[in-house]
Amino acid sequence: MNFGKQLKEGLISQNPVLVQLLGMCSTLAITTSFFNGLGMGISVLVILTLSNIFISLLRKIIPNEVRIACYIVVIAGFVTCVDLILKAFVPALSNSLGVFIPLIVVNCIILGRAEAFASKNSVAASAVDGICQGIGYTLVLVIMCVFRELLGSGTFGAGLLGGGELGAAPGLRIIPEQFGIKILTMPVGGFLTLGALIAAMQWALTKANNKKKEAK
Amino acid sequence: MKISPKFVLKVAGTLTIIALVTAALLGLVDGVTRDKIAEIEAEKTRVAMSAVTPAGSEFTDALDISDSVAAAASAQGGKVVELYGVTKDGVEAGCVMKITASGSQGTIVMMVGVDANKAITGISVVSHAETSGIGTKVVGNDLNDAGVPVLDQFVGMSGSGTLVVKKNITPITTATVTTKGITTGANAALAAAEALG
Questions:
Q1: With contact defined as beta carbons under 8 Å apart, do B127 and B112 qualify?
Q2: b/e burial code for range A129-161 (CB count within 10 A of at least 16 → b)
Q3: What H or E segment, with its residue span, contains residue A155?
Q4: Where would you tag: which of A19, A58, B33, B89 has the fewest CB atoms within 10 A of its CB?
Q5: Mutating which of B4, B6, B9, B11 best tests the A interface, going by the most A Cβ atoms within 10 A?
Q6: Residues in chain B within 8 Å Cβ distance of A63
Q7: pTM higher than 0.90 for the full model?
């Protein structure tokens, strides 16, 4: 097990959103404010880590023929737990994320990591994988949120900063309201931002690869 | 291929055990969070009810919706989902109800308060699926074509079925259908309040 290598994979070379292109639906839908992005990212991180640990624990018991069904039961269980806990203790986040929390059940990142990693590796390695992939997902969400929020509504940290209740805080105003590019806060803005991010990531990865080749 | 009973037992058994353990875990979490969630939901309903009734109103627990009340509301095109009595300073002061009526994109759920004289004390929208930027103007209580907040114009109006858009209710241009949906809900609420007696 190599924590540094797994972290680098989760963040950069095997980033779940930008390289593996998993979990796009939630990425596009909820990245409108800093609060949403961070909340969703952390929820997925927790669920991914827990389900990775359990699926890795059970990997020798689960018959190959029904493995997907078993994974889904485990994942759905954890998602429902997180959903209930958020509803009870962080209602502001539960309100603003709405149906996207229950929908984590079908988020491909979690099933993807269960199938590709947790079912083949030790418990500790799977836990680390869950954390690293979760951080990678959260990082992309936060970058997209900051970008869309800043250029779309002209604020930073809506829901968290700028006074007011959690979830209803206006955020710090950086660009005057009338100069916001409204299209970025709409779904189409999500596609544009994600497209630009994936392109930037591919460019950086290709450049790094080419350099490696030249060095050889 | 012949499937051996042992194999079936193994597959079904594993899946059952995993499902049971998950269910037990969920039961545990539910036990911790159930009361808290119910409390938050009740608080939400209370806030929504306070918004459509005069300040200082108190509310009874949810009342049963009789057939005649339901029929009166559906004759006006709406549906009563929840019904609460209102008291103010210890005196009965009408009722508040959660009403559904169809808007331009789907069902609009609204809270409507009606006083003892069967006149509307306020309307607020609880949830909806109206078009962002168009129907949401009505939901957000923006100014109507006459310069009055669109939901506030209902306050004080009475007589089920007498509220008609473009007659005594002024819509917001481009959001007429949403305004009509709210008006349907208002008529239904008045009909239900009249049926309550």
A1: no
A2: bbbbbbbbbbbbbbbbbbbbbbbbbbbbbbbbe
A3: strand A155-156
A4: B89
A5: B11
A6: 10-11, 14
A7: no
| C-alpha distances out from residue A69 to A31, A80, B19, Å | 30, 16, 10
Q: What CA–CA distance (Å, rounded) separates B65 from B68? A: 8
pLDDT at A167 over 80: no
Chain A's closest residue to B30, CA to CA, is A84
Which among A95, A86, A31 has a CA at the least distance from the CA of B126?
Answer: A95
Token pair 């680098």 is at which residue? A8
For B15, the closest chain A residue by CA position comes to A70
Are the C-beta atoms of A10 and A129 separated by less than 8 Å?
Answer: yes
Per-residue pLDDT band at A24 (split at 50, 70, 90): confident
- Residue type for A71, please? Y
Higher-confidence residue of A179 and A86: namely A86
* Per-residue pLDDT tens over the stretch A30-72: 888 888 899 999 999 999 999 999 999 999 888 888 899 999 9
